[in-house]
Amino acid sequence: MIVLGIETSCDDTAAAVVDGGRLRSSVVASQLDHEAFGGVVPELASRAHERVLLPTIQRALDEAGIQRTDLDGIAVTQGPGLIGSLIVGVSLAKTLALGLDIPVVGVHHLDGHIESLFLGDATPAFPLLVLIVSGGHTQLVHMTSAVERSLMGRTRDDAAGEAFDKVAKMIGLGWPGGPVIDRLAQGGHPAHHHFTRTRLPGFDFSFSGIKTGVLYHLNDMDVEARKTYLEDHTADLCASFQEAVVDMLVEPLERAMVATGTTRVGLVGGVSANRRLRERISGLVEAHGGTFHVPDFRFCMDNAAMIALSGWKRLEAGHASTLDLVAHPSLPFA
Ligand code: KG4
Ligand code: ZN
Questions:
Q1: How many whole angstroms from its chain centre is CA 16?
Q2: Would you give the distance in Å from CA 25 to the centre of its chain?
Q3: What is the Å distance from ligand 2's center to 230 Cα?
Q4: 178 lines ligand 1 (CB under 6 A)
Q5: What is the model's pTM?
Q6: 3-state secondary structure of 121
Q7: Whose alpha carbon is nearest atom 16 of ligand 1?
């Protein structure tokens, strides 16, 4: 079965082809326009998806060496995400399915991110704890099989990636902030400043406090002093902030490993590209004698390969959606 995957939940327009469970192509067209605005502008994102989606699909088909008529099914991100962006993907997916007389299936964006663990050769076994960390989500999921999962924890406020993006903006590092902070932190001292770590009961997360912590730290200085401080200590500030975020992700994860007795851990979503986070979780899992799974860097950020594979599995299992499928900006996960 050959399935085309479509992902347009935020600002990346992506298409991919999966054939018999194997990835044949994956194309991501990022909308760099948003950089100038310091964040995703929803209206610009949907307009860009409309313009770029068909050519992106064509590139994915060309790179897979197939024609549109070779497709057996279409998988599309149904939600959560920006409504205008999702509608572009879902409408086109239904139109293609109707025109080609093939089934369409809606995929939850987070199931897509989880599926990114299965795109490589070394696929994880179950039970498995998956930490989903992206610009819009921070979720801890316990998977007991490929189809049975329970939500153990989630962020009560900001997502981990959102904290990276907001702090980067605060200190003038541009957008998206995660990759810049990751890079600068490598030359800084994580012990330079101790930011208070928010610790919640259970396995939930909270990242709004750390953001305010950075703001107060800077506001304690007058304008001149802050300018000099940032000239001398931006790398140290990045490393200290990053260490605090990593601690706040690792600590509940370790408690969840102990509580579930699961030492197999997967890390997915845009923030899973973070080198310090990978290093710390890898060390944690090793200390517990478990196995650590993280996708290839190109599948950490939003992509359609993960949607195509997730949809392919659903279609193979006979779970097609109907043409009533509609975009859902806050599609529930649990
Ligand atoms: O999964 P993704 O592409 O989109 C969402 O579904 O949100 O994640 C994007 C997020 C952004 O917040 C970005 O700053 C963050 O992932 N990110 C990183 C790194 N690379 C991307 N955060 C920390 N370190 C990185 N290396
Ligand atoms: Zn995502």
A1: 17
A2: 19
A3: 31
A4: yes
A5: 0.95
A6: coil
A7: 270
